[in-house]
Structure formats: C-alpha cells, structure tokens
Amino acid sequence: MNGVTLDAVMGKIHKLPSLSTVVMDLLASLAQEDLDIDILAKKISTDQVLTAKTLKVANSTFYGMPRQVATVTEAIAVLGFHTIRNLVTTTAMVSAIPASSRSGFDVLHFWRHSIATAVCANAIATELGEHKSQAYTVGLLHDIGRLVLATQFTAEYDQAMDYRLAHDCSITTAETVSLGLDHAAVGEALAQHWKFPVAMQQAIAQHHLPARAGPLGLLLHLANAVVHALDLSNKEDDLVPPVDMLAFTALGLSDAALLRVFKISEKDLEVACLVLST
Amino acid sequence: MTQPTKSFQLPLDAVGIGMSLAEPLMGAQGEVVLSQGVELTQALLQALRRRGVTSLSVLVPDEGLAPAPAGDKRSSAAELQLAQLERLAQLFRNDDGQSGTARLRALVTRYRLDGSP
Predict the structure, then answer these.
(1) What is the pLDDT of residues A205-214, one digit of tens each?
(2) How far is B107 from chain A, CA to nearest CA, in Å?
(3) pLDDT in tens, B61-86
(4) 0.90 exceeded by the pTM?
(5) CB–CB of A278/A53 below 8 Å?
(6) Nearest CA in chain A to B88
(7) How far apart are CA B23 and CA A147, in angstroms?
(8) Please, which residues have CB within 8 angstroms of residue A96's CB and are 6 or more apart in sequence?
(9) How many CB atoms lie within 10 A of CB B87?
C-alpha cells in the first residue's frame, strides 16, 4: 500500500494557491443571515477575470436573459442573487486547483459530476424549503478531496483508481484500501482550511457516512446518489453508491417531490455546465 | 411468431400493470405462487405487496418491441426504455440490498418508465 497521511495532505493543502478574498467572502456569506448584496456585488466586481467569466455565462442565451447585462449588479437584478452567487462560486472553484496533466484523473468528468450534485442538492433544498443558500455550494465541493488527491498525490491516486477499476468497487473503498484515507476526510481538511461554514465542513466529511450526518450531510448523501443513479456524470463505469434509508426518512421527501428533483436536475445540468466551457 | 421480449428484475414499485411474469414466482416452501406469464393486475400487485414481495422478474410489454417499420415512434420509445433499464441495472450493479438503495432504484426506474423522453 502506498499510503497517504492526513499530515501529508495538510502540508499540501497549505501550499495550494489561496482563494481570492472575493471567493472567501462569498463562501462566508453562505452562512450569513443579514447579507448586504450591494457590498458583495461590488466585491465581486473588483475581480475582473471572475466578473468577465460570470457575465459571459449569464449572458448566454440559455439563461433566457431579456437583455444583455454589463455589470454584476445588473446580473443580480435580472437573475437573482442566489443564481449569480452560485455562478460566481462555480466559476471561481473550477480554476481554484490547477489540474495535473500527468494524472489519469479526468477533471472534466469530475466537475460535471460536482456541478450535477450541486444542481440536484439545490433542487432538493428547494423542495424542502431549507438549506437553500448552502446546498448548491456543498454539492459543488463535496468531492473536492478527490481533486486534492489527484493533483497533489498523483501517482498514489492513479494507483487507487486502478484498484477501483480492477475491483469495480466504490471510490471510497478504493481510496481507503490503497491510500489509507478517503476523499471525504481530505475534503473536510480543505473545507476547514478555506474556512467554510461549519455545517458545510461536516456535510462534506459525512456524505458517505449518513449515520453520523446532520440534515445537510444527508441531503448531500442523497443528491450524490441521485446524480449517479440518473447517470448525469457521463461516466461509462459509473456506480451508484449505497444509499441509507435515513436520507429518505429524515428529509421526509415524498415520491412526487423526488420525481420533480430528478426532472429539474436533468433539465438544469447543461446550463449549469456552461461554466466549464468558458 | 414469438414476439421479442426481455425480462427485467424490477422493484415492485416499478412494475406496471399489464407486464407479465418472466418466471414463476415461488413461495417460501417452494410452491408456485404465480405461474410464469401471468399478467399483473393492480389487485395482484397489491396482494404481492401485502405478502412482502419487493421485486419481480417481469417481461416488459412487448407490443413496441416487435420489429416495426423504421420511424415507428412507439418502437423506438420502447427500445429507449429497454436501453435505460439495462443501463440502470449496470449503474446499480453493486446493489448492497440496503433499503435506501432499493428505494432510489425503484424511483429512478419509475421515472425512466413514466418519463416521456
């Protein structure tokens, strides 16, 4: 076994490029009750690259804008703060960790699955009428530990994925067997380093441990499984992970609500993935 | 001529009225509860649910599966559904028997069978 320790992971995490203050502020805003949208819009605007990318996606015909927008404030006025914050966060995160070209890890598949989980988690939160501000981002970043492992421990992670392929087992099992830790633990470490709201740190840590998870973790557990079951990641050897009944009973979603979640997830995914092609 | 059909092990919730049993359904003592080919009605499905049956091996309605003139919409829709059911079986290939996994599978199967593409 070519193990990876949590200490080694922490060492690498501290050497990652830091997130811009704009993105840190956006993440912190997910747990804020009294949010000054104007101030946040001004902050986003100070990051020109981020703003340009966001407006390019917001202006694409898929968003059905009645007119072209030129500023973040205008985009928020037309599409709503919730949508724009999700769009900015996705745009920023997709480029937050530079991909390693040596790895066999498919970054595009990774982000497609992550965005699909974000869209699905958001749809579940909408049905519940709860967790609306955090569901999208926690879905987007639930597997971020995989990206850290694939880019910072490339050889070890390639071996873990070879093990997965050979045994056709879950990613978590392959990581635990070949590395000694899994992506949820690494994701939790990164979420702490990036000062995510505590509920989001826990949800990322527990998305494969539903028995220990809180409501947001259970929501994430279910959203992740739904995305695998709906085949939204476009991955030939995709596999639905075990689903705990607790995710259904604790969240209390009716069959009709879940069928709506399936439909919305499929419908919204392509638009949400536009970020990947800009 | 026999119509081409395909059998699927479906969660009970996903079994539609009018589908028929691909294999005889056996009881705990090895007795035949329902014979192969029996068409499933609402009453039968309710009775099976009361008996605690959770899944059935069924033949998907075959009228759309018969070789049909090119462009026959019903046929291509049925073929698409078949392909989707096969893909679902592959995605759930490591089914651990957890009730949550079974519930998700039943729901997505229902979604695929009901959903008009």
Answers:
(1) 999 999 999 9
(2) 7
(3) 555 444 444 445 555 777 787 888 88
(4) no
(5) yes
(6) A229
(7) 46
(8) A17, A19, A23
(9) 13
